[in-house]
Design brief:
199 residues; mainly alpha; elongated; HTH-type_TetR-like_transc_reg; 9 helices; transcription; Tet_transcr_reg_TetR-rel_C_sf
């Protein structure tokens, strides 16, 4: 039975995600990706127009921030929108470690692909910043510095991505990702609450 174009594209994307996460973008060849996917090497050019466009396609396919488009109404409300975004970032980090590694590698190295990554990552953090500001203006959140609060929220949202490195400090090492996300969201939201607002 012949493999459909959509199946083959997904196999190539999945192979690229695995290898980019493990070996880095620069350390991975198109040939290695195609060998991993069981695909002809010419298919990367045929489907994606080259390796860099393959990276873009990875973000189109797998990046959690793409869900923002599906939740515009919820994301217009500061409390619910902020909680949703923090939860999605945590789940993304815990459930798709490969994409998380790719984002981390490209941003830490300030690679030539940083701009590609930022096209997807920046709107999420910009939306979080906007929701924090909006929530403070509407009396839902209380904090002094928007910059410091955004840094705190980013740190909390990304912290459990690397919890395995600190496993000797953890009481439990096999957390359910949904439970973990709920706990961290609750901690962040509680810390931001303005006096007199309901939890």
């Amino acid at each position: 039975m012949a493999t459909s174009d959509s199946d083959m594209k997904l196999r190539i994307l999945t192979a690229a995600k695995k290898l980019f996460a493990r070996q880095g973008y620069d350390g991975t060849s198109v040939r290695q990706i195609c060998e991993e996917a069981g695909a002809n090497v010419a298919l990367v050019s045929y489907y994606f127009g080259g390796k860099e466009n393959l990276l873009r396609a990875l973000f189109e396919q797998f990046f959690a921030g793409n869900k923002m488009k599906d939740n515009e109404e919820l994301l217009s409300r500061p409390v619910e929108g902020l909680a949703l975004l923090i939860r999605e970032i945590i789940l993304f980090g815990l459930e798709d470690g490969e994409m998380g590694n790719i984002v981390k590698q490209e941003l830490e190295r300030s690679s030539p692909r940083t701009e590609i990554v930022l096209v997807y990552v920046s709107p999420v953090w910009k939306k979080i910043r906007d929701l924090l500001q909006q929530g403070r203006e509407q009396g839902f959140f209380s904090f002094d510095s928007l910059d410091h609060t955004l840094t705190f929220v980013m740190g909390a949202a990304l912290s459990f991505k690397w919890h395995t490195a600190r496993s000797s400090l953890m009481e439990v090492t096999d957390y359910d990702s949904g439970v973990t996300a709920d706990h961290i969201v609750k901690l962040v939201m509680t810390s931001l609450r303005a006096p007199g607002t309901k939890a």
